[in-house]
Amino acid sequence: MASRRDVFHCSHWGAYVVTVEGNAIVGVRPFAHDPAPSALIHAVPDWISSPRRIRSPMVRRGWLDRRHRSDTTRRGTDDFVEVDWDTAIGLVADEISRVRFEHGNRSIFAGSYGWASSGRFNHPATLLRRMLNLVGGFTGHVDSYSVAAGSVILKRLLGNDDAFYGRSTSLRNVLEHAGTVLAFGGLPLHSAQIEAGGIGRHLLGDTLREMSARGVRLVNVSPDRGDLEATPDAQWIAIRPNTDVALILGLIHTIVSRDLHDREFLRTHCTGAEKFLDYVMGRSDGIARSADWAASISGVPAEAIVALALQLCARRSFITMTWSLQRAEHGEQPYWAAVALASVIGHIGLPGGGFGMAYGSLGGVGLGYPRTRSPAMSQGRKAIPSFIPVSRISDMLLNPGSEFVYDGAVHRYPDTRLVYWAGGNPFHHHQDLNRLCRAWQKPQTIVVQDPLWTPAARRADIVLPATTSLERDDIAGNKRCEFLFAMQQAVDPVALARNDYDIFRDLSHRLGCEAEFTEGRSAFEWIEHLYGTTANDAAVRLQHQMPGFEEFWKAGHAELPVDRERIYLADFRRDPLAHPLPVPSGRIALFSDEIAALHYDDCPGHPAWIEPREWLGASAARRFPYHLISRQPESRLHSQLDFGRVSQASKVNGRECVHIHPYDALDAGIEEGDAVRLFNDRGQCLASALLDARVMRGVLILPTGAWYEPSNDPEQGGMDLRGNPNVLTSDRPSSRLGQGCAAQSCLVAIERMPAL
After folding, report:
1. 293 in active site
2. I need a labelling partner for 511 at 20 to 30 A (CA). Which of 104, 314, 527, 727 fits?
């Protein structure tokens, strides 16, 4: 009888212990210190057993025959030929060298965007870039699909994006001092089960319930009541999607017209307040952004807007926004407007007051900030500065050499000949997948390195099978988690799968830079080294003694010194001259001369309501009368483990469920569980109907992450069969300034399908 053993492990959705018998996983239990563990941990054995595993290196037949001269339209339909590892490594190394010498390193795009592993050592995107930096560089990306528009604008206003990445006021401080928490996009627990690099304790639900018990008024501004489900007594303000800026301007108008604004804070801590308030009050253009004006756009009654404005001024108020609001056309504006509202109220820098972003978007935000440095493998020195905004992949591939603007500067897209994607699935997170399919045919060669036959891997030329985190050792930790976690190998690698580090080490050897890539360390020596960087920092800078590496590895985790009390911008509040913001004026910009000088009609010099092309008030809504929201799913992380037991249990007949208000379903003749077709001019997909009274009328919610599976039936026009919303979303940018994705600005129609 095979002996049983327990190994410690971690994923982006939490730490857990895996019970192994022989070479099989027979149980998973959560980290003992986690009060609310995610159910996703129970799907991790499906990584190992899935028939979708890539079992050996594979090369598309057409590419193997003709190499970079192959018929790229055959990607996704051509068959694959199995090759050995030596051949595969040689083909990839030769192709990297060919493109470098014939076209230059800018023509290599190192995509690799995704949450492949919480491990900080076997981190595919980092290792890929480390290798390519040693051979002349690559074109990479800036920002992320989650964070782009908001991050760019906050750096302009505040000098950094600390508030956008959760380095702002602690929720413990808000709990003890705030009277009202105004949460745009809510504080969703389904997103807070996730944290980049792992999470030890899921605390948001308990924290929100304690807030409510202490009398803090929680206000959820969202089209979905479920975005603040932790406390049933939270106030719900149902708002038309993409109209948050109009509501905020209505709140500011109400506060100023009643002379409740903090004139002194605006004078001493802000610049451009007069110009901005001229716009709000209508002095500059004759349009007063009053509560009545805001109600006509947002759908929130004027009396509710007035009552909320008075409430925000009557007690200490804290304003937060989830990351979701920036994934829209003009996605920069809500965050700028939120900062303006907090400035007008004047509670910034006070205990429990001001603003912060991303609470509920990630599990660790606001719940404790490690004071040590986090373990991280280095990408090395960036060899060339070539980049694109992360969501402009199709634009880059379809328009080589054309100009694009980003954050006020003009750049050019490279002529991409080679795409190397490691540990990610662009056919999950990118918008307008039919357009991406056309763009995907442009490069001469596409390499995908992944454990699984994702939609991207099926559309590659060379496929390299990587191990999952359960098949290798690693270390987890991040800037918002109070623990470091050992990620101990549970089982042997599946078939011929290899660790990402080993794959890139062999490629580095072929490319002549192995010594620089490895720095003479084995894989396990790297893990010990990364732990040592954190332990050293704790000892030298903080006089905090962490366990030795062997003790840490045996225990499975080590606790870090944490700052649980923080007030964002407290020093700036106390003395703005002694502690200026890292911007030219040193103060918060409610009007920016620098942005105004760019003359962007999609991002003017102050927070503004700019009508999106797709929202419920647009003329296009006559054809496509529903606003589609594509949010983070509850049953997986993005598209990870979509085939797993937890994700599959959330589907109906193998299709993702679209949330629809029961009255909208009644009008459309749709019943619970029906197969439905969502469509617009960009594409169409099947889904299963889920009647949900928490969703406001006129809104549909279809979570992201269903693996893209277009129909082969020509009469169905490439309809996605599994419910991937990104066949419907637009590939236009948020604005010329931020160039973020605009997935949440999306109108669709819905109809019941015949029985399938």
Report:
1. no
2. 527
